[in-house]
Amino acid sequence: MAKSEWSFKSAVALSAALTAKKVSAVELTQDAIDRIERHDGKVNAICVRDFDRALDAAREADAALARGERNPLLGLPITVKESYNVAGLPTTWGWTPQKDFKPAEDALSITRVKSAGGVILGKTNVPVGLADWQSYNEIYGTTNNPFDLGRTPGGSSGGSSAALAVGYGPLSLGSDIGGSLRVPAFHCGVYAHKPTYNLCPTRGHTPPPFRAIPMERDMAVIGPMARSAVDLPLLLDVIAGPDPLDLGVGYKLALPEARHRALKDFRVLVIDSHPLLPANADIRGAIEKLADQLSRAGASITRESPLFPDFTDASRLYMRMLMGFLGAFLPPDILAGARAGAAQLSPEDKSLAAERLRGMTSTHQAWVFDEGARAGLRAQWRHLFRTFDAVICPIMPTPAYPHDHSPEQEERRINIDGRDFAYPDQLAWPGIATLTGLPATAVPLGLSKAGLPVGVQIIGPFLEDHTPLKLAELIEREFGGFVPPPLFND
After folding, report:
1. Is the pLDDT assigned to residue 250 strictly greater than 70?
2. 11-259+468-488 has which CATH code?
3. For the whole prediction, is pTM greater than 0.90?
4. Among candidates 38, 40, 33, 54, which has minimal Cα distance to 141?
5. Would you place residue 80 in the very low, low, confident or very high pLDDT band (cuts 50, 70, 90)?
6. Model confidence at 215, in pLDDT bands (50, 70, 90)?
7. What DSSP assignment string belongs to 215-284?
8. Is 329 a residue whose pLDDT tops 80?
9. How confident is the model over 239-265, as a mean pLDDT?
10. I need a labelling partner for 402 at 20 to 30 A (CA). Which of 143, 232, 343, 368 fits?
11. What's the pLDDT tens digit per position in 1-10?
């Protein structure tokens, strides 16, 4: 069965086609279902299927369209990360003891998607505890990269990025604390947006079997993924806004418009690498090409600036604060081992691995001092964004790498142009935006010589999400964006 004309269209284009009655919601949903049934035996992106309810929702959407109703997502097929509560479907986060947990209520973001007319096809695969850039677990198996089945699709929203790349609907929902939106988007050649911290309420994006209550999880966000930059604001606007349990029904936060609407008006700081964690030749080449294209389009391009916060210090702080948060949930035996290891550290050991270990065993007092350092970093970023509108930099140091499921992530290695680095050190590039809660948009920039996706992230000012989103849209319009994987372009 050949792909239909709708399989790789943007959500904006599909919505227009639905309104013009060129296609029905049932046809779009069935096309996505057909592609899942045809291709997902190789990719394994969709771990929980919900096709019967999806077709019912599509029929309801068609009836609403026939009545002249309009809604932002009306009739559009959507996938969601397994970690979101969807009533009646399992939410496991990859933990085998939770394989039978089924929440009774939807996450708030899922409620908003359904209210906006979205048609949920099913759930996408994740790593255990959402704690890897590879998406595999004992319940659902391994998700593969559609551009090379022997490589990772990224994580932890790896099932979502793979689903988008193969054409299982135009939109997906993911989450991010260590790059879990941006990294899989980068590895699969699609788009994602890490929103400003706390812009999108996370109630119901909850580890099982805990209650779905309003809660701030330090640095963690939920956000949209898509095959086109123009679709990211569509889904973001649906899920954004305070939780009514916190601020009351009807309150809506109005984000500022993008600073500019033409490439020639943007002032961009471009960072292509760093000695602490270099980017390989593929990534540097893609960034160089983009910088040249932007410059020729009239944008102001700066290659370095003293306003850019110290990458090394910020990365060390991020490692401590990230693991200070995640370490709170470690089993007692692992935590005891971390304490023993931290006690042996030399004060002169400033490696990222040492900082992660310190973070796992951090005292509240140490966290308070780190929080003060983070406030200082936020002030530096505010100052930077008086001179620049956006920062373009790597998401990860290399394109997608072969599957490596060895149990100790600290023992894994990532090779960057012939040099080995500790696998978790890759946190540094996504962490540059995560630590201070800044919005960041993942943008694909075509394929490497080996046929693997490459791309960048565009970091914007706090609460000015529409600025990096607009720059991503302009880059896509002028220079191109998503490229379908040859293995599944049928």
Report:
1. no
2. 3.90.1300.10
3. yes
4. 40
5. very high
6. confident
7. ---TT-EEEEEESSGGGHHHHHHHH-S--HHHH-TT----PPPPS-SSGGG-EEEE----SSS---HHHH
8. no
9. 85
10. 232
11. 668 999 999 9
Task: State the Cα torsion 226-105-85-212 to the nearest 10°.
Answer: 120
Burial pattern 392-412, b for ≥16 Cβ within 10 A else e, equals: bbbbbbbbbbebbeeeeeeeb
Domain range list for the chain: 11-259+468-488, 264-403+415-422
**Quick one: pLDDT at residue 247?**
67
Residue with tokens 């100052």: 383
Average pLDDT, the chain: 96
**What is the DSSP-derived secondary structure letter of residue 151?**
B
The single residue listed with the structure tokens 């100790």 is: 408
pLDDT (mean) for 284-302? 98
Verify cis geometry, omega within 30 degrees of 0, for the bond prior to 156. yes
What is the mean pLDDT of the segment spanning 449-462? 98
Residue 9 tokens, joined: 């269209």
Surface-to-core class of residue 138, CB atoms within 10 Å of its CB (0-12 exposed, 13-18 middle, 19+ buried): exposed
Percent over 70 (pLDDT), the chain: 98
d(CA 490, CA 473): 26
From residue 182, alpha-carbon distances to 145, 176, 345, 459 in Å are 15, 8, 32, 11
User: Diameter of the chain by CA atoms?
Assistant: 70
Question: Partners of 457 in the beta sheet?
Answer: 393, 442
Residues 196, 438: contact at Cβ < 8 Å?
Answer: yes
Half-sphere exposure of 301 (CA within 13 A, CB side): 20
**Using an 8 Å Cβ cutoff, are 124 and 157 in contact?**
yes
In three-state secondary structure terms, 462 is coil
Are 67 and 38 within 8 A, CB to CB? Answer: no
Q: Does the pLDDT value for residue 208 go beyond 60?
A: yes
Q: What does the DSSP 8-state code read for residue 347?
A: T
One-letter amino acid identity for 44? Answer: N
